[in-house]
Structure formats: structure tokens, C-alpha cells
């Protein structure tokens, strides 16, 4: 029997959830790196998109605002944070689908999406669940589909290394801090896994990644 999964909410503690949006907005240039993530995905009309671990829905809403002709789905395991996302979407006057579920056991059929996004979610997962999640993403992506990730990465300066010591105690971020995320993504047979950019924040370095599920005739 699999042991009970450890769920880590935004900012590690449920009581900090109300601070999540202000902290990311003012402390991490959230809009800047999320806009870059959306732009690199080269979204086309009619695509179906998944924001995995959507949290309060900032990225989900941004995707829909920038690409109103796309179908946008957000998924998170935290009901309270999904209520915040729904309220924000209502205030913005846009329609997005928000589902509750776990990243490592997606409630979607095979070949369901053209793009999957993950912003500051993967570092919350244990090593085993990181791998399970990446395999689930590969499963639900259509051939030619892409994964776009922004998350904590290997520190490149003294400040980032000091911050990483704190992150290791609060999160499951050790894989990220060791720079293992690209290898974990490749373990699910993704091709063309590449770092496309990076941002330095008060909580450490945030690299952006892109990975592609190859078309059958390209394999």
C-alpha cells in the first residue's frame, strides 16, 4: 500500500495562502516570468492548454487573456486556493475550467492537451512524485505537444545558495536545487529539453524550460 501523500500548500503553510499573490507579484516579478513562459509556448487558436498546479489562477487567467481563442484548464489539489482562482477569473470576466486533482494522477484522458504549463509547483513534490507527474504530463500531451516549466533551479551565486538552504528545509526542492529537473523531464521520453531563460528572485534562481513530445514519425 502506498503511504499517504504529503501535500505542501502554497508558501508551505495554509495560513500563508492569503500572502501568496502579493508576495509573487512584488517579490518575484511574477507577471514578467509568466508572460515569458506563455510567449515561448507559441499558442495557436483552438489549442487545449493545462496549467498544472494553477494555485490562485494567475497564470491560467493570463493565458486566457492573451489567447482567448484557446481552451484553458487549471488544476490544483487545494480547494481553498481554487476558490480564490475562481473569484479572480470572475472578476476578470473570463471563462476557464478549474479542476481539483493531483499532478501525479491527472484526471484527464490520454492525448488531451497541446501544451502543459507548470509554474512554481514541481518543487513541492517528492522525487518520486516529480517523476510520476512528468510521466502523467507526457501521457496527456498530444504528439507534438510541449511542456513549459518555470521553477527553482541550481543556485548560481552566494545569495541563491544561502536561500537554497532554507528552501531545502521548507520544501521538497532538493532535486531542483541540484539541477536535476531537466534529467527528470527527460526520464519520461521528452525530447528537446532545454533551458530557455532565467530570472533571479528574492527566493532564488528561476530557470524556464521547454520540452517536446515528439511526433511518431520523429521518434
- Annotated CATH topology: Rossmann fold
Q: Can you tell me the number of structural domains?
A: 1
Question: Main β-sheet, in a few words?
Answer: 7 strands, mixed
Beta strands, count: 7
The class by helix and strand makeup works out as alpha/beta
Amino- and carboxy-terminal Cα gap: 36 Å
| Fraction of residues in β-strands | 15-25%
Query: Which sequence of strands runs across the widest sheet?
Result: 3-2-1-4-5-7-6
Count of DSSP helices? 8
Name the CATH superfamily assignment. Answer: Vaccinia Virus protein VP39
Order of helices and strands: HHEHEHEEHEHHHEE
CATH class: Alpha Beta
Summarize model confidence as the mean pLDDT.
Answer: 85
Shape label = globular
Topology record:
Elements: H1 20-27, H2 30-40, E1 48-52, H3 58-66, E2 71-76, H4 79-92, E3 97-100, E4 113-119, H5 127-140, E5 141-150, H6 158-170, H7 174-177, H8 181-186, E6 191-201, E7 204-212
Parallel strand pairs: 1-2, 1-4, 2-3, 4-5
Antiparallel strand pairs: 5-7, 6-7
Helix pairs in contact: 2-3
What are the key terms here?
219 residues; 36% helix; alpha/beta; globular; 7 strands; seven-stranded mixed beta sheet; Rossmann fold
Q: Overview of this structure, please?
A:
By secondary structure, this protein is an alpha/beta fold. The protein has helices at residues 20-27, 30-40, 58-66, 79-92, 127-140, 158-170, 174-177, 181-186, and strands at 48-52, 71-76, 97-100, 113-119, 141-150, 191-201, 204-212. A seven-stranded mixed beta sheet has the order 3-2-1-4-5-7-6.
Q: Gist?
A:
The protein is an alpha/beta fold and 219 residues long. It has eight helices and seven strands. The protein has a single domain, classed as Rossmann fold (3-Layer(aba) Sandwich), CATH 3.40.50.
Amino acid at each position: 500500500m502506498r503511504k499517504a501523500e504529503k501535500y505542501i500548500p502554497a508558501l508551505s503553510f495554509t495560513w500563508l495562502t492569503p500572502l501568496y499573490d502579493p508576495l509573487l507579484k512584488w517579490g518575484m516579478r511574477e507577471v514578467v516570468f509568466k508572460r515569458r513562459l506563455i510567449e515561448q509556448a507559441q499558442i495557436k487558436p483552438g489549442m487545449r492548454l493545462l496549467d498544472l498546479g494553477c494555485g490562485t489562477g494567475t497564470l491560467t487567467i493570463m493565458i486566457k487573456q492573451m489567447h482567448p481563442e484557446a481552451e484553458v484548464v487549471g488544476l490544483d489539489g487545494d480547494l481553498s486556493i481554487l476558490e480564490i482562482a475562481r473569484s479572480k477569473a470572475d472578476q476578470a470576466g473570463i471563462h476557464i475550467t478549474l479542476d481539483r486533482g493531483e499532478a501525479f494522477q491527472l484526471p484527464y484522458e490520454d492525448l488531451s492537451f497541446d501544451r502543459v504549463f507548470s509554474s512554481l509547483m514541481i518543487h513541492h513534490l517528492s522525487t518520486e512524485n516529480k517523476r510520476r507527474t512528468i510521466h502523467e504530463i507526457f501521457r496527456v500531451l498530444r504528439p507534438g505537444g510541449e511542456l513549459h516549466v518555470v521553477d527553482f533551479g541550481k543556485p548560481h551565486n552566494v545569495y541563491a545558495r544561502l536561500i537554497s538552504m532554507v528552501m531545502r528545509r521548507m520544501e521538497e526542492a532538493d532535486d531542483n536545487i541540484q539541477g536535476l529537473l531537466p534529467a527528470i523531464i527527460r526520464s519520461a521520453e521528452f525530447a528537446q529539453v532545454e533551458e530557455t531563460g532565467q530570472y533571479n528572485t528574492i527566493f532564488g534562481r528561476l530557470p524556464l524550460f521547454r520540452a517536446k513530445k515528439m511526433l511518431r514519425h520523429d521518434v
